[in-house]
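Researcher: Please translate sequence to structure tokens.
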Amino acid sequence: MSRRRARSRRSGASSHEGPLLTAAVSAATGYVHGFVIEELAWRSRFRDRETEAATRERVQDLLERRASDYPTLAAHVQATDADFDAGFHLGLQIVLDGIEARMGSR
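Model: Translation complete:
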């Protein structure tokens, strides 16, 4: 038996706890990194609010014109109201809820 497995058994931890915990941290970290990269790319493209607002309006217009092609997007996406902070917090909460649900079932 490996030292880590023996230590895990002595502490009462599940043999899946290590890999599950590693995967949970990786999922949360991946979400944060991905979101930050997306926001940085957006901010580097649109350095002033007027250009950003005009782009968001064009995206919203496109979604409305093509609603029959993309009904789910058209029904739920409000490109003109996008808020990076609120989107980040909501997405992170979803990731953390999933981790909690998975780890809590062990």
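Researcher: Any highlights?
Model: The chain is about 75% helix and 0% strand.
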